[in-house]
């Protein structure tokens, strides 16, 4: 049960900035409570206690993160363009920090890949990581983000600019191509979202 020495107002501001809702405490001693990913943060005078089976999301936000994360991303489109979805996962030395997936309506596969990358990088900024190593199985996206290939398609160009803007928030970042089997978790998340969608 992690205990973080922090002013409760500062802690509440960090959680709200990460999109986590603050609610009233259950006892007179509790200043507030917040719940996220099967864990609860309870604020007392000068400290926040995090309990539950997955406390790392809350503790990363409360401690302003830091450290390095590995982002795996993938997009899926059936029809190209057609129904599309995204999947991403952030891994740290402690295991999976966060993951996400959702449908995104009708899109091409490349648009879905970019949307997955944007969602993953955006999530990584929320957790306050200092460095991010990005891995994906789309050569096109990797080379465009690196600046090795031009982005002639206006829809993709706009997304590339958004990715590069988000990446300025990290002290260090890299993006590398990996085979599909290395990117299996993100691929599975994207396809499950499409199947469930």
UniProtKB/TrEMBL annotation:
Q: Which Gene3D superfamilies match?
A: Ribonuclease H-like superfamily/Ribonuclease H
Q: Which residues form the RNase H type-1 domain?
A: 65-195
Q: Superkingdom of this entry's organism?
A: Archaea
A GO MF annotation of the entry reads: RNA-DNA hybrid ribonuclease activity
One Pfam family, please name it: RVT_3
Q: Which residues form a coiled coil?
A: none
NCBIfam families registered for this protein in UniProt: RnaseHI_Halo (NF041306)
* Protein name, UniProt field: Ribonuclease HI family protein
Q: What is the lineage of its organism?
A: Archaea, Methanobacteriati, Methanobacteriota, Stenosarchaea group, Halobacteria
């Amino acid at each position: 049960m992690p205990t973080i020495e922090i002013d409760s107002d500062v802690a509440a501001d960090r959680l709200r900035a990460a999109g986590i809702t603050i609610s009233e405490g259950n006892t007179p001693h509790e200043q507030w409570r917040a719940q996220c990913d099967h864990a609860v943060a309870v604020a007392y005078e000068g400290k926040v206690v995090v309990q539950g089976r997955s406390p790392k999301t809350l503790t990363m936000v409360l401690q302003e993160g830091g450290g390095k994360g590995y982002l795996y991303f993938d997009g899926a489109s059936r029809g190209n363009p057609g129904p599309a979805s995204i999947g991403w996962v952030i891994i740290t030395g402690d295991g999976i920090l966060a993951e996400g997936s959702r449908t995104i309506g009708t899109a091409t596969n490349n648009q879905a890949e970019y949307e997955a990358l944007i969602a993953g990088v955006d999530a990584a900024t929320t957790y306050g990581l200092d460095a991010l190593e990005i891995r994906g199985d789309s050569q096109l996206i990797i080379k465009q983000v690196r600046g090795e290939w031009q982005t002639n398609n206006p829809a993709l160009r706009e997304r590339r600019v958004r990715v590069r803007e988000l990446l300025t928030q990290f002290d260090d970042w890299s993006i590398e191509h990996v085979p599909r089997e290395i990117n299996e978790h993100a691929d599975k998340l994207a396809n499950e979202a499409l199947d469930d969608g």
